[in-house]
Amino acid sequence: QLQLQESGPGLVKPSETLSLTCTVSGGSISSSSYYWGWIRQPPGKGLEWIGSIYYSGSTYYNPSLKSRVTISVDTSKNQFSLKLSSVTAADTAVYYCARHVHGGDQYNWFDPWGQGTLVTVSS
Amino acid sequence: SYELTQPPSVSVSPGQTARITCSGDALPKQYAYWYQQKPGQAPVLVIYKDSERPSGIPERFSGSSSGTTVTLTISGVQAEDEADYYCQSADSSGTPLFGGGTKLTVL
């Protein structure tokens, strides 16, 4: 059974870079059928897709966050990572990683999801 | 910018049928997906490609599509179905986006 687990600091200072890692177990991140994505949810609010990566390193990002986001993959560790720069309080959220079933512009969904990790931006 | 619109809340009594709608201009061309999120938990996929149900999801969950509106239907609602439900689709460039979410209350 595929499982994903987020890890990283729970507190980040304003203007610094948020860094999180997602470890995939029970399956290979190098599967040709899937992308791997990051989604966030501010407290009490809805879901926002951040970006996704293919095992080859190909990425695509939410245009609203693209200038601050970098997603990378380490196939040897079965992990992928998120970096979000110049954070503000508005970036405080639960950050989820998920397998992204993506077929060009044909289909596009997330399953399963990690349990999520709360990142607070505060001095 | 493109948006998916959901009602903020829906209330039903146990055993009744709950219908949650999601509207968006691109829905005739893009599949819709539905997620259930209970408090403090990660979202769980309950419907994919408009009407397909993943393994392990009860048969009482179903999805349908008509024009610019997709609908998640929960037949014979149970207390355990109380949760937030999010629709998800993509814009014309394939960028995923989510609706604002609907809180389902089981009275």
What does this structure look like?
The complex is a heterodimer of chains A (123) and B (107). Chain A has 123 residues and is mainly beta. Chain A is 0% helix and 54% strand. In chain A, strands 2, 4, 5, 6, 9, 10 and 11 form a seven-stranded mixed β-sheet that branches. In chain A, strands 1-3-8-7 form a four-stranded antiparallel β-sheet, with no helix packed on it. In chain A, a hairpin with a 4-residue loop joins strand 5 (48-54) and strand 6 (59-61). The mean pLDDT of chain B is 96. The relative contact order of chain B is 0.34. Chain B has no helices and nine strands. Chain B is mostly beta strands. In chain B, 0% of the residues lie in helices and 44% in strands. In chain B, the strands form two sheets. In chain B, strands 1, 3, 4, 7, 8 and 9 form a six-stranded mixed β-sheet that branches. Chain B has a three-stranded antiparallel β-sheet with strand order 2-6-5, with no helix packed on it. Classes of the chains: A mainly beta (123), B mainly beta (107).
